[in-house]
Amino acid sequence: MKPAIIVVDMVKDTFKEGSRLPITQEGRSILSNLRTLLKESRQKGFPVIFANDSFMKGDFIFNGKMKSHSIRGTEGAEVIADLHPEPTDIILPKRRFSAFFKTDLDQTLRVMGVDTIVVAGITVEVCVLMTVMDGLCHDFSAILLEDCTASKNKEMHRACLSLYRDFALFPLLRVMSLEDFLKETAPSAGKA
Amino acid sequence: MKPAIIVVDMVKDTFKEGSRLPITQEGRSILSNLRTLLKESRQKGFPVIFANDSFMKGDFIFNGKMKSHSIRGTEGAEVIADLHPEPTDIILPKRRFSAFFKTDLDQTLRVMGVDTIVVAGITVEVCVLMTVMDGLCHDFSAILLEDCTASKNKEMHRACLSLYRDFALFPLLRVMSLEDFLKETAPSAGKA
Amino acid sequence: MKPAIIVVDMVKDTFKEGSRLPITQEGRSILSNLRTLLKESRQKGFPVIFANDSFMKGDFIFNGKMKSHSIRGTEGAEVIADLHPEPTDIILPKRRFSAFFKTDLDQTLRVMGVDTIVVAGITVEVCVLMTVMDGLCHDFSAILLEDCTASKNKEMHRACLSLYRDFALFPLLRVMSLEDFLKETAPSAGKA
Amino acid sequence: MKPAIIVVDMVKDTFKEGSRLPITQEGRSILSNLRTLLKESRQKGFPVIFANDSFMKGDFIFNGKMKSHSIRGTEGAEVIADLHPEPTDIILPKRRFSAFFKTDLDQTLRVMGVDTIVVAGITVEVCVLMTVMDGLCHDFSAILLEDCTASKNKEMHRACLSLYRDFALFPLLRVMSLEDFLKETAPSAGKA
């Protein structure tokens, strides 16, 4: 396995102090795991990609009840300080849900020799899931890290994961725990 | 509303006689509603698009447990006779889950003046959902017709829909019944 | 080299009897070479793809002086009888100039193990050139076959080729004669 | 006309002191016109987009004779100081030739209400031309500014333009002088 880590939408606008959005609380609960994931992945030399909402003011996406946020070029669309990206990480602004939508991520991953995307972040049933699925669309295996993803409540998180645990394309898509992922990619583990 | 109807993956390979796949049984249970949807939509002049799995032999997608099916150019990748497409319908072969993935559907819809995609078919948590979400990505409103979609069992169908009923972008995405959709688009209904 | 042959826009609407378009005359002058290319390529097992204009009525592209033609679903958008596609060839309808634009050709070529596209057909400075360039964009080497392509006059054909003979990315892009291509891919030729 | 200005590949690596590349000399000869274009366009409220080569080390594109340059994240991939982008301009890194290739520029332009792209920069027969053509592909009219574009010599510049002056889709694509473009968009000019 040649994995790349994709951390989705852990941006300042969602985690600003005083935010009472349910996703903010749930998102905070995975920060510790995300830090472990990033630390161990960098040690193993896995590429790290932060895929961040990067919306235009006046975009179609704000025609519904969702309020304007994560605007392109503003601080709110940056990765939160808690996860401080390293200079070698890739910051990938995205227009919509999936990290692949109208970006060149597929080619970037191929240049890097990646065969598996490992997706973490929020929210699991939208941007995380769409990134996972688009990874499969672009011929990458995908791992959805269950304890490194969140939704606006634990019930929705659980419901979403349950839909994809026994996926028709398994094991091209796997729902895994952080611990299992780290074990499988440990230097001592058998090579696939 | 200027809707187009997208019927996903109602193809012969999935519905062939003797198939014991759970999705076959569940898929059959929505045929009557799909026929109503198509009949009424054509009467109202809504474009109808059949988006069909159209896979290559040896494709990445068959590297997991999913068996080869709906192969490009074979009869198995055609729309089932029960839904007999009309000459004015669009048959859209698709390589992956979403009807928009590496197709020109977005431009086709814009040429037709469509502003809303109405998605039906199987399976709700994969190809239907990805089509719905990609519709939003391409600046179309989306309606997921709950009683014109199916999954491999009713529990998964219900679980999937529950994730998107109260969607952050509502009403850009709505989960609706066939009846409500037909009411809303009835000639006598107020025009949006 | 693992080449695939892409024949661009040799469709019935352009070659119908009585057409007095300059491109019709020039296009006819390469038919003999195209037949040789196809025959030899099939013998060598190279995939053959016919990329055909497939426009929608009312499309943006007809807002200028270009008349409506090669309409999706009509006979006029089919490959001319002179080049009679074989059942194993790929017929690829395209919305615009390049065979890659909003199609899944890049993935198709990768599944087939192709590393080089060999482009023929008309017109050299538009659809042929855009296909060549998009091939490079998708990480395929490209060969533009000078005597299997045409423009509306020989001067434009020559002028176009002269722009790319000494290309900055050479030899990722090469302008070649049919003879040289066939020699290079002859069974007795040294393997690259 | 609701134009947006796209300035292609005027980046530091190509214009660094001491560069003896022919394109450097030719590129410098259009700087004065580019400054006029930008100044007048900003006064008229036209969006300005700098589309810059942004390559990955080890990319396919460097497998030919082209040397590594304009690497993503380096200063060499930034717009030259002579053209000093304004904070409201859009800086669009691009992986390949066209500003539209695997970017979200098409949607950005639609959100801004743009109907015409006005393309300037280098080199005319590659990145400028591919951007122009991709604009047409995405349903935008396109203007290629003859005296705001350059190639590695004047002969190639002239030869390239001559291919597209009498384009089949005219006037969806027009080759124009800066003066004519400014006249046509002058406040006193008749509105199209």
Let me know the number of strands of chain A.
Answer: 6
Query: How would you sum up the major sheet of chain A?
Result: 6 strands, parallel
Quaternary structure annotation: homotetramer
Average pLDDT confidence of chain A is 96
Terminal residue distance of chain A:
6 Å
Spatial shape of chain A: globular
Provide an overview of this structure.
The structure is a homotetramer of 192-residue chains. The first copy, chain A, has seven helices and six strands, in the order E-H-H-H-E-E-H-E-H-E-H-E-H. The first copy, chain A, is globular, with a radius of gyration of 16 Å. Chain A is 33% helix and 20% strand. The longest helix of chain A has 14 residues, at 124-137. By secondary structure, chain A is an alpha/beta fold. In chain A, strands 3-2-1-4-5-6 form a six-stranded parallel β-sheet, sandwiched between helices. Chains in contact: A-B, A-C, A-D, B-C, B-D, C-D. The A-B interface holds A 60-61, 63-66, 95-98, 101, 125-126, 130, 133-134, 136-137, 139, 156, 159-160, 162-164, 167-173 and B 60-61, 63-66, 95-98, 101, 125-126, 130, 133-134, 136-137, 139, 156, 159-160, 162-164, 167-173.
